[in-house]
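Section 3.1: Structural characterization of target chains.
Under the original work plan, the team committed to producing a structural model for every single-chain target entering the pipeline before any wet-lab resources were allocated. The record below documents one such target. The sequence was received from the expression subgroup and is listed exactly as submitted; it comprises 192 residues.
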Amino acid sequence: MKNQKNVVFAALTAVVLAVAVLLFASPYIALHSIKKALDAQDATRLSQYVDFPVLRENLKGKLMESMAAKLPPSQDSDNPFGGIGKMIGGVVIGAAVDGLVSPASVMMVMQSGQVAPRTPSSTGPSQEPPSEPQAQPAPSTPEQVTSRNFSVDYQGFNLVRVYRKSDPDTDFYFRRDGLMGWKLIDMNLRGM
């Protein structure tokens, strides 16, 4: 009888440990699936791991805060033109973010870590072209986008920060979707 209880206890313990390991490893499993989508240049498959409405709102909020910090504060509350700049900026930011947050652009950002591909600066006839070629949005190679190039930093049970080891200032935030799923909800990018 005691031996049977030990077997049941051991089996339950093994099941609980297996579930805990799967829950802990779930962002790594999602990151591996994202890597496969990036390698295959499959924006549709990648979009399964993106919560587009939440990502849009988070990026709009960040850009609005950045714009508000750069604009001088309005001293005259009676001035009807005081808020026009902020209003126009909000419309422009909204349109820019709506254009940025698409499956193809999210794929490009996750591959390169930047919003737009680098382009050579304009050179006039008297200037020499840059000596080093600029990085182009070439298809990813296994060295560029591998799960080994990314680190996962738990921010809580339902939130992880994923960043490139070579570029820790560019990071992606994923929120748990169900028990095992993860969706991209926010990004911090260079130049934003």
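The first strand starts at residue 150 and ends at 154.
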